[in-house]
Specification:
Strands 3-2-1-4-5 form a five-stranded parallel β-sheet. It has a single domain, classed as HUPs (Rossmann fold, 3-Layer(aba) Sandwich), CATH 3.40.50.620. It is an alpha/beta fold. The termini are far apart. It is globular, with a radius of gyration of 16 Å. Helix 1 links the parallel strand 1 and strand 2. The structure holds adenosine monophosphate. Adenosine monophosphate binds next to strand 2, strand 4 and helix 6.
Length: 146
């Protein structure tokens, strides 16, 4: 199986570098294109929906900061350019699946913490992404920080 377009989902933490390295390694083996996505989760979602105040200025700042972090992140990889780096806004699973479909990606690469105990109940982005994915999903095991 040869992949043609690999979509890398990152939360822009330092932990994500092994995910990127694995995805880039796979893509270069197959001669595939790469794209990157980071999804900003709306602040109202964190508060469970209804928030009795205007969050638009905070949201604008959140978006600018995310764009800056994404640019700094991408600068470290020559394969990443402004054209193949995307910022989504909404629910990560929905945004990542939508971009994967629009861009005809055939592999999504994501990090996985291998949760257990209580953390399992909270779920994980990798697990969430598997449901209804429009293509293959590779979960790269992330090591716990020492
Ligand atoms: P988590 O399950 O939230 O610990 O995240 C595991 C992995 O999901 C991260 O290493 C990223 O690959 C991906 N991920 C988490 N949050 C986001 C996000 N907001 N946008 C894109 N990818 C994400």
């Amino acid at each position: 199986m040869v992949y043609q377009h690999v979509l890398i989902a990152v939360d822009l933490s330092e932990e994500c570098h092994p995910v990127l390295q694995r995805a880039i390694e796979l893509a270069s083996r197959d001669g595939a294109r790469v794209s990157l996505i980071h999804v900003i989760e709306p602040m109202a979602m964190a508060f469970g929906g209804d928030v009795p105040m205007d969050l638009s200025i905070l949201q604008q700042q959140q978006q600018q900061q995310a764009q800056q972090r994404l640019d700094n992140f991408a600068r470290q990889y020559p394969q990443l350019t402004p054209d193949n780096c995307h910022l989504g806004f909404g629910q990560p699973r929905q945004e990542i699946h939508q971009l994967a479909s629009e861009q005809q990606c055939d592999l999504i690469v994501v990090g996985s913490h291998g949760r257990h105990g209580l953390a399992l109940l909270l779920g994980s982005t990798a697990n969430d992404l598997l449901h209804g994915a429009p293509c293959d999903v590779l979960a790269v095991r992330l090591k716990k920080p020492a």
